[in-house]
Amino acid sequence: MKLPKELIEKFKEPFISELENYINSEVELIVKVKSKRLLENKNGQKYLLITFEDKTGILRAIDWFNAEKNDSKIDVGNVVRANGKVVLYDGRLQLNILQDSDIIVLNNNEYSYERFVAESKIPIDVIMKDLNNMIKSIKNYHLKKLLEEIFNDKELSEKFKEAPAGLKIHHNYRGGLAEHSITVAKMCDNLSKVYPWINRDLLITGALLHDIGKIYDYVINPKGIEITKSGELIGHIVKGYEIVEKKIESIGLNEELKTELLHMIISHHGELEWGSPIVPKTPEAFILHMIENLDSKLNRIQNIKEKELETNPDKEWSDFDPNLGRRFLLKHIERG
Amino acid sequence: MKLPKELIEKFKEPFISELENYINSEVELIVKVKSKRLLENKNGQKYLLITFEDKTGILRAIDWFNAEKNDSKIDVGNVVRANGKVVLYDGRLQLNILQDSDIIVLNNNEYSYERFVAESKIPIDVIMKDLNNMIKSIKNYHLKKLLEEIFNDKELSEKFKEAPAGLKIHHNYRGGLAEHSITVAKMCDNLSKVYPWINRDLLITGALLHDIGKIYDYVINPKGIEITKSGELIGHIVKGYEIVEKKIESIGLNEELKTELLHMIISHHGELEWGSPIVPKTPEAFILHMIENLDSKLNRIQNIKEKELETNPDKEWSDFDPNLGRRFLLKHIERG
Amino acid sequence: MKLPKELIEKFKEPFISELENYINSEVELIVKVKSKRLLENKNGQKYLLITFEDKTGILRAIDWFNAEKNDSKIDVGNVVRANGKVVLYDGRLQLNILQDSDIIVLNNNEYSYERFVAESKIPIDVIMKDLNNMIKSIKNYHLKKLLEEIFNDKELSEKFKEAPAGLKIHHNYRGGLAEHSITVAKMCDNLSKVYPWINRDLLITGALLHDIGKIYDYVINPKGIEITKSGELIGHIVKGYEIVEKKIESIGLNEELKTELLHMIISHHGELEWGSPIVPKTPEAFILHMIENLDSKLNRIQNIKEKELETNPDKEWSDFDPNLGRRFLLKHIERG
Amino acid sequence: MKLPKELIEKFKEPFISELENYINSEVELIVKVKSKRLLENKNGQKYLLITFEDKTGILRAIDWFNAEKNDSKIDVGNVVRANGKVVLYDGRLQLNILQDSDIIVLNNNEYSYERFVAESKIPIDVIMKDLNNMIKSIKNYHLKKLLEEIFNDKELSEKFKEAPAGLKIHHNYRGGLAEHSITVAKMCDNLSKVYPWINRDLLITGALLHDIGKIYDYVINPKGIEITKSGELIGHIVKGYEIVEKKIESIGLNEELKTELLHMIISHHGELEWGSPIVPKTPEAFILHMIENLDSKLNRIQNIKEKELETNPDKEWSDFDPNLGRRFLLKHIERG
Amino acid sequence: MKLPKELIEKFKEPFISELENYINSEVELIVKVKSKRLLENKNGQKYLLITFEDKTGILRAIDWFNAEKNDSKIDVGNVVRANGKVVLYDGRLQLNILQDSDIIVLNNNEYSYERFVAESKIPIDVIMKDLNNMIKSIKNYHLKKLLEEIFNDKELSEKFKEAPAGLKIHHNYRGGLAEHSITVAKMCDNLSKVYPWINRDLLITGALLHDIGKIYDYVINPKGIEITKSGELIGHIVKGYEIVEKKIESIGLNEELKTELLHMIISHHGELEWGSPIVPKTPEAFILHMIENLDSKLNRIQNIKEKELETNPDKEWSDFDPNLGRRFLLKHIERG
Amino acid sequence: MKLPKELIEKFKEPFISELENYINSEVELIVKVKSKRLLENKNGQKYLLITFEDKTGILRAIDWFNAEKNDSKIDVGNVVRANGKVVLYDGRLQLNILQDSDIIVLNNNEYSYERFVAESKIPIDVIMKDLNNMIKSIKNYHLKKLLEEIFNDKELSEKFKEAPAGLKIHHNYRGGLAEHSITVAKMCDNLSKVYPWINRDLLITGALLHDIGKIYDYVINPKGIEITKSGELIGHIVKGYEIVEKKIESIGLNEELKTELLHMIISHHGELEWGSPIVPKTPEAFILHMIENLDSKLNRIQNIKEKELETNPDKEWSDFDPNLGRRFLLKHIERG
């Protein structure tokens, strides 16, 4: 489903986030049309205002020369090849479409959909290094071994690094699962200092593995992130149990530790109505649920904030978010 | 945990349900004290009214001779050895305690607790025969093979025949799991005639296996039925998935069939808040949930009715049942 | 509100489901426009792709000759008269609109709206025969008499045969009430074999009558099925009580049987929040609720499945269904 | 079930509320034992402190002479005959049991249970007069006639005057139904002045009839107020509909008025989960629900307040009330 | 934010509600376009049917002369200046657009947005007079003084008279807060006659002040009513507490009265899930909650009814109202 | 309400937690009777087994000499003076009551109830030092000043150090409020490292102040912790708002910061149904809610664990906890 590496390497066209290196230069871009409007200035001249996007950001573009022609050619959602000059306007980057350049709509096989799949802002290598350090800090021999076996398992670890942690709600981008897992583990680590009676090794092992079943829940394809049949009919809670239980079978683990660890995985949604078949009944399971819930919600808030402000930097309040059941103050007071 | 068969055979003392064969004879019983009251007749004579019970029923007993002595000797909940004459009084059996006979309180090791563990009214052999016939009626080769492998697996099948289907709510007696499983399967069989577009083989396979995980949820011991650590921390939904998934791994099964069957097991509680991590998303899963819910509730109603009428045959309404959230009409009009 | 029988007989135009008898013939159809799209083939030729429907199914039609003209003439929702040739294309029937034939939009009085009111796939006569056989199987004289009086009552029985069992949720077509009632009764009949302590006669009587009040809830008119003022302000639960209570008054019935039967009618929604003013408190009322709930939901699932697959035979998952709160697997494994 | 009038007339013994006319006199009382405590004063003298009650109030009594003997003779809940002298102590009435007088426990047939059935503090004749005046104020001829027919119907009106409006929750005393009905009607009358667009006649008719079905829900017998089989299986919402619908059938009423009035009766609980099969969909139905809810709750608050303060005049907070889900401030600031 | 009085006085153009004084005269109006349709009569003549609105009502208008030109000029939502002749047609007022008159679209600064902000149908002076009379009827010196201090406070009283009581749900128009407050107080006054044990002074004081915090929740601006940052982050329950608590601090009040009054303010939403941090625990707080809830809902019902019937006088049922969760019978039987 | 310091100093009797310094010595204790049982050893000798408690722990005691006499003298709940010898038995401390020593029941005025009021295991001075360090770490001048003003305010700070954070649910002991506040602040501090976009100063200020209103919710008196009238009628959410708002008024603060800080206080319960009148709408408010919820629940779990294991060191599962809706695994695997 993924393009071969060689092919991806061939892409010369810069990403939107790289355009700050091209100010006042002409570039050729492969971008998706996010929105467009045909307007008229005071002199009656038509111009076309477009917002382009790729996985790295959004870009304002203006076509002063072929406004009507290009307007009829492109639709929102099209992926296009466009040539223009990168300029700074009002403090933000803008692409001025060249006069003698057509905007060309591309077919699916003329570009890599990977250009448009969002991914974690933290490079996956950084995440995995943090994760390996976290594993090294585990003192319990068997738990550390279990983690090593899972994250050194070629199939599991390949999928883990690619997987999103969700479709829409949170960490819904490539690498989201890994980012979420390590962030939760870090908070659990901090917490185990505040509550010294908590079993740190168990807590961190659970934190790193709690969503591992999601590697079978989603697939990234040209349409974006889609849920799999296994994701709909079985789900990551039970799949995560299966993955970890089988790995434990193969390497052995004290029965009590095994039960408590597996309990953490299946109870991490915290309540039956949120999809855990069993509620947390150990302190570690309880903490894991609350911390992973916190990280999920905060990631969602952060994403909403960034996305809405990127589009409209003056917006004070977010739109109503049906998932969280409220609007958020976008313009809250930032760290001074 | 169970007494060896030889030992059980040795028990000579009849069960309460067998006493109709002993009318006007003297018997020695091993029974549990369910309640007792020291009363006085019009002539000022003290007598002791006791209700005994074993797993087969309850029995009224009267001690006219050593009322006060025996009253001070026995407590509610004690298991005792008692000698008396079986008589018919007011159309019901009664035990008249003999004059020269002491009621003796027994220690745990002086009787088998099996005497007091309720069991299915349908003999387990009859249930298992029905179950095997049901398996034979399956046309899909792989599903039939899967069922045979599971119910011929010595460990699984031994446990299956002993297991209750619950602690309190329904089928909470030895053999209850098997009784529930076959009853649900029979109703599903009937239903597949009314809805011919339903996959009968898949539906019946799911019906027979849906609660199989309960074999690890409960243990029967001298205190009665108790929930295990696995029952509390993992639960039968996930355990059932594990049992069936591993058996499928060992014998092979078409991937789609496997997913749909496992989906039926984990979704059979029907709603997240009732403990299924995924709601039913196939017609067969949906039916299985509704039918097994119906059988659970009806078994509970039937048990409440029998138990309350056994104690008080004139009671019109049941006590309020917190599980079902209502009182039931005990004296509803029976089949004419 | 209904057209006289004679008028309906006059209709010569075949229904869509009858077209398999007309392959390669020219026909004149009266159909509703479900959707349409004006397209262009590789040679730049415009053609109009239409989906027609009547109460018996949907039909793909193509107009190669007057695409633009007919596109501007018809709107989605119009009922039209169209002439074309029935052909087999890609294994499915298709209507090729004739070159010299105009598609004509009809007024309300130029066709019978009955053509577009869906109806039960089981002929009403078959349903009523099943129902009469079910009544004959009742052993209790008074319950059987009550059923006969109700289903022989001219007004009640006329309405019963016409009525849908719902607006949207389930059995929302002519004859749906009768189909639902007999299906529920059949399942209750099967169930009374599995639970022999249940009062079969009472259960079946309740099953056949439980939704009788719906005859006053809906009206079928040119706009489709609409809810009546009585349906909005009183509802079928109370209306059903009134119908049956009055009929009992006129023919007499043992007071206890009367109360239990009426209780079944008003409690059949099972929970207060689902519209029953009283929850089921007898085993028969309990079973009736669960079985009629099962049939309602299964009918909905079956309808969704058929409708979505008719439109798109390759669809794997249904759309999200707000009533059931989930998507369904359309491509589940059918009976082998 | 009620004693004949003649017998009741025979009772000479005063009620507790009448004792203020007997201060410093000796009286013979028939009272129920609400609580008792055997105590010892500083000189080591035993005395028995009893709280008596009848339907008119509670009374503190002290036995200085036969404390131990009488303590062993009476149980809480017994109805007794007691002789004593009425005195004022600490500003409250008290009964000093006479030295030479035995407290005698009475059998069920030695007293009328009516003595202990609480009743409305407003005499039923006053309530019914108010109700008749309210009926006279109705301008719509048919609604007024309907009310007259119902409240002049001998059977209905006899039952109406006796009936409580509940078992426990509110107006749970003889005459409670009538008191509740007229109070709700009065508030609706007031409200119709504030909202002149509301149909006053319809609103008041609905207010007076909304709970009429309760005449078949409860029975007053020696055990107190009990719910009937009809109350459990049918309930007052549907019974009220039946009573009013049949009376309308017999006297005739405009179809629309009939539907809206019956709608008010079945929707007056306001929400499905509170037992109305249909929610209020007219302004009058909406108001009726909210006002009758207000009166029910206030009556409950008032009863709790009176009862708790009668027992302990210094109590600041009520006990937690599970029905209302809170404690109430008993010592709130009274009207100045 | 408000236009100066002088400017408002200058408006010559009549409001829609004043047009009954202009029948058969020509008028110039400033109105908003609510809807429009370009139609054709039988002779093929095009005409433009417009619905205009201002804060006083809606008006049907027809343009027979420049239908197509004006149709292309105006959009729904535009505020326009239009000249026409007022005529009676079919019993309703109608504006016939003049032949030689252009409809002119106005900019924001060419009209006062006040023309389009709905306001209470009861003039604010009438409301405030009622309110002052209600204050005078209070007997408790301190409560009366508190009310006088608040409603004589220039800032508070100015805001109070302008404020709406909501954004959408109820009393969502200028003066709505004052109208709601006095209506609730009047009903509480009536109620205190039916329940004489209630503290009338406290109840009325709470009624008048319960929503006072809303003066900081909303702002009326050209876009209509908008919620403020304080409204989103603090809300009127806590703001109302703050206003009243500070005023009490400044004038003094018995501690108990203060606590009970403030309790009424913060508990008036009645349930935690409706936004009160504490549920009502005094009778007065309880009544206030129920009465203010009743008035809120009735106002909403009345508004829906008026608005839907104004648009379509023949409509029998309202649209589904998501806030109240139902449709309402618009054509209920009015007071005879 | 508290005893003067001098008096407390006078107490010579050691606390239970100090007894490890008295092994094999005779001591005089002032302790509360938690439970007692009169038993008989094999030789028929009676002995009295008592469990004593004070605020520092529980203690097993045995009286071999005056078992029956002392049994009749003391009741569960009594505070007594007892003399005995401290011994080690089965690895746990035990008090052997002396032969010639009477156990004496004390009146309320013969001991300080402070002995029995539980308090935080962390000394209040340590907590306050942590808190002051936390304040020092705040960089925003105004927030730091606000915290200093509040925690240097004599009245507020005295109450803050004494207050519990609850009646039953969590931190229900002297110093519990301070312990909870600083623990939440520490976790928020850690968290602000993981989410660097969060406003640390604001978050920590909110954490330290969120429950400050509880200083008026509870009072510690001889009966234990009781809720005040203000606690019942106003509650700590609104009281906390009032305290902080007034302090801000007196020292001044940027309007935006003020609103966001006050928003954090009133929204910290997270959901309306948990008593916040407004849900969190800023990231800091959101985090504060989740972290303080986590600390509350963990404190409850920890307390349950300690208390149940103290009584029965072999218990595997806690009792069902109605607040958390589950049993907890007491014997979970501790940090290795």
UniProtKB/TrEMBL annotation, chains A, B, C, D, E, F:
Query: Pfam families of this UniProt entry?
Result: HD, tRNA_anti-codon
MF-aspect GO terms? hydrolase activity; nucleic acid binding
Q: Which UniProt keywords apply?
A: Hydrolase
Which protein are we looking at? Answer: Metal dependent phosphohydrolase
For whether the record's keyword set contains Cytoplasm, the answer is: no
Record flagged with keyword Hydrolase: yes
Its lineage opens with: Bacteria, Thermotogati, Thermotogota, Thermotogae, Thermotogales
- Origin species, per record, is Thermosipho melanesiensis (strain DSM 12029 / CIP 104789 / BI429)
Q: Which InterPro entries match?
A: HD/PDEase_dom, HD_domain, HDIG_dom, NA-bd_OB-fold, NA-bd_OB_tRNA, YhaM_exoribonuc/phosphodiest
UniProt-listed GO biological process terms: rRNA 3'-end processing
Q: Which PROSITE patterns match?
A: HD
Residues forming the HD domain are 177-297
